[in-house]
Amino acid sequence: MSTTRINGSLYTDIQNKIATVVFGHPSSNCFPSELLERLSKEIISLGNNDAVLIIILKSEGTKAFCAGASFDELVAISNLEEGRLFFSGFANVINAMRTCGKLIIGRVQGKAVGGGVGLIAACDYVFATESAAIKLSEFTIGIGPFVIEPAVTRKIGVAGTAALTLDATDWKSAYWAKEKGLYAKVFESISDADKEVSTFTTKLASYNPAALAEMKKVLWKGTEEWNLLLAERTAISGKLVLSEFTKTALLKFKK
Fold this sequence. Notes:
By secondary structure, this protein is an alpha/beta fold. 49% of the residues lie in helices and 17% in strands. The strands form two sheets. A seven-stranded mixed β-sheet has the order 1-2-3-4-5-7-9, sandwiched between helices. Strands 6-8 form a two-stranded parallel ribbon.
C-alpha cells in the first residue's frame, strides 16, 4: 500500500511477514501533523495484521533521516489547543510503536533532529550509518524535548538525555549514539546497513511469533502509563511554544 501527498509520503511493503514502512518529505524528511497521523495509524494497522511479524521503519533518500516536526506548522501555532494538537503528533506515534505487538527495527541513514530522535528511540532495535548523527535543539527556540524524552531516556539514560538536551547546538555522532544504546550497530554505508537489516529481520521472522510478541511486551514493561505521561508533556510543550521567548526565536529562524 502507498500514499503520496503534498504533506509527505508513506509507503508500506509487506513481504515474507516483514513490513517495510518508508516515510518521506521534501524538507529533510520532516513530519507535518498529517504525516504523523498517517504513520501512527499505519503502525497500529500493522500491529493488528496477522500477516506481519516484523516491521522495518526507515525514511526516503540518502541524506537526513528525519528533521523532526514541521517548522512551518510550529511557527503557525497561535493558541493552546493548536499547540497541544501539534505536539501530540509524535506522542501518538511513540505510543503506537510502544503498544504495537510487533518488533520494530529502525534503519537510520542520516542525521536526526528533535522528534526524529524520538522516533529512533521508540524503535526496538536500530541499525545506522556513520552519517546518522543526532541532535536535540529544542532549547534554542525556547521549548524542550518533553514529549520524546521518555522514549529517549529509556534508551540512553538520564545522563545521555541531559547531554543531548543541554548541548542543544552540538551534534552527537552515530558512534556516540551507539555507545549510549540508541543504535545497535553502525555501518559505513547505507547498502551495508540494508544488507544487515535484511538478514536480521529475516531471522527474526523465522522465530516463534508468540515468543516475539511476548518479548515486545517485556521490552516495554514499565511504560504502561505513557498515554497519560505523554499527554501531560504535550501540554507543557504547547504552552511553551506560545511564550514570547519562543515566538521571538522562531521569527529569527524563519528569517
